[in-house]
Structure formats: structure tokens, C-alpha cells
Amino acid sequence: SSRVVEIQSQMSERAVELLGLPEDRACLLLDVGCGSGLSGDYISEEGHYWIGMDISPAMLDVAVEREVEGDLLLADVGHGIPFRPGMFDGCISISAVQWLCNADKKSHSPPKRLYRFFSTLYTALARGSRAVLQLYPENSEQLELITAQAMRAGFTGGMVVDYPNSAKAKKFFLCLFVGTSGTLPKGLGTECANEEPHQAKFTNERTRFRNVKGKSVKKSRDWILEKKERRRRQGKEVRADTKYTGRKRRPRF
């Protein structure tokens, strides 16, 4: 329907805007879950080049019929991104990445598939570039899972939430940086809120006290802060962090 097409185009525009591409040159972008090539049309209009990946032959057939300008690849991104290192100046994805959270086959492990996707995407992106993935998470656990695997793969960045106070217009964009910690863009429609919107921010410093498996050492300050942050994201009441959070008490307190 034309309404779907319109929303799709708006989200593509927003995703490309969040990429913060250089204005003086044409870039090569990867479109993950490109479908019939609607986001690709916008990329082409902006004067950039693109390669689209999608798991659905039917959708790609439509893209071919529509004579889109990008190159198309039939592939499951859960198996990884099969391009040479540093090839892309950016990646966008509209409403696709949450599908990696589903185990469609017995052999599918969502965390493994997400990690494979993010780690190979990280390699395929040029240093200093970004990936902007718009997604429809089913719940906060899904957001956690996706974000955690992106961090494991080396990305920094976080979730940009547009219109967080509107049920209809609320949109999630996972904005990821490769090799540089950029400043996380502000979500649209957050100006009226006087407090910081609950965005999942993560930077390199969070990884200081991680054990081999990538988790923070249990009961450490980082572990406590992460747990509190998770609770906050789930909308629970949590006491504010202070310099005393996670501080060890003397034995004869």
C-alpha cells in the first residue's frame, strides 16, 4: 500500500541522514534487507551507490522488475556479510534486523547469528563509518540481545529513538560507529522532554572490567551499573547512581 511505501521512504531518509555521510563525494552503501529496493531509490536519488542484500527471492524479483540502480544479492545476513574489508562507507537497514532474533530452524541460534552478522558487517565497513539499522523490537530483551552482540563485534554507539512519547510515530534506530566513538545523534521529537531520553548508550569505557566471556565481573561496579541500566530500560524504579554505588564496605562496618 502507498502508506507503507511512504513510511518506508521516510525511514530510509532518516537512516541515511543518521549516517552523516560526507557531502562532497559519492559513497557506496550496503542495504541490509533491501526488499524491493525502496530505500535504494532514495540512496540513488542522493547520488550514492548501493548494494542490497535480502533473503527473499520474491522481493528481489520485484527490485529487478523496478530496475533499481543498486546491485542485488540473495543471501541470509545471519550467515554473515560476504564483502571485502572496508568496502562500504556506511550501511542502512530498514525493519530487517529484528528477524535475526527468531530461530526459524532448529540449528539457528539467534545470538550466534546476530554476532556473525555484526562482526562481518564491522569488517566490511570503512573505519570511521556508521551503520544505521531501523528495527521493530518485540520487547526490551530483544533490544538487549541485538545491542549486546553489536558491542561484542566491536561497534560503539547506541539506540536513537525518534518520537519516544508517541505510540504511532516512535521509531528505533540502532546507530553504530566503526572504529571511532562519534556523538550519538539526538532522537527527533525529544526536545520537549526535559530529561535525557532513555537511549542505550555504549562506549569503549563500558568494556574495561569485562571477563573473557565479555560480561562484567559479577558484583563489580560496572556489573551493578549495567544491571540498574537494564532495569531502567525496562521501566522499573531504580535508585540513582552515586559515587557510593558498588563501593566495598569495610569488614567492621
TrEMBL record:
GO terms for molecular function: rRNA (guanine) methyltransferase activity. It comes from the Eukaryota. The keyword Cytoplasm applies. Its main location: cytoplasm. Residues 176-250 form the 18S rRNA (guanine(1575)-N(7))-methyltransferase Bud23 C-terminal domain. Residues 228-253 are annotated as: Disordered. GO terms for cellular component: cytoplasm; nucleolus. Residues 235-244 have a biased composition (Basic and acidic residues). It is found in: Cytoplasm; Nucleus. It catalyses: a guanosine in 18S rRNA + S-adenosyl-L-methionine = an N(7)-methylguanosine in 18S rRNA + S-adenosyl-L-homocysteine. SUPFAM superfamilies: S-adenosyl-L-methionine-dependent methyltransferases. One of its GO terms (biological process) is rRNA (guanine-N7)-methylation. Residues 30-106 form the Methyltransferase type domain. Keywords: Cytoplasm, Methyltransferase, Nucleus, S-adenosyl-L-methionine, Transferase. The keyword Cytoplasm applies. PANTHER family: 18S RRNA (GUANINE-N(7))-METHYLTRANSFERASE-RELATED, METHYLTRANSFERASE-RELATED. Heterodimer with TRMT112; this heterodimerization is necessary for the metabolic stability and activity of the catalytic subunit BUD23. Interacts with GRIP1. Belongs to the class I-like SAM-binding methyltransferase superfamily. BUD23/WBSCR22 family. S-adenosyl-L-methionine-dependent methyltransferase that specifically methylates the N(7) position of a guanine in 18S rRNA. Requires the methyltransferase adapter protein TRM112 for full rRNA methyltransferase activity. Involved in the pre-rRNA processing steps leading to small-subunit rRNA production independently of its RNA-modifying catalytic activity. Important for biogenesis end export of the 40S ribosomal subunit independent on its methyltransferase activity. Locus-specific steroid receptor coactivator. This is 18S rRNA (guanine-N(7))-methyltransferase. It comes from Phainopepla nitens (Phainopepla). The gene is Bud23.
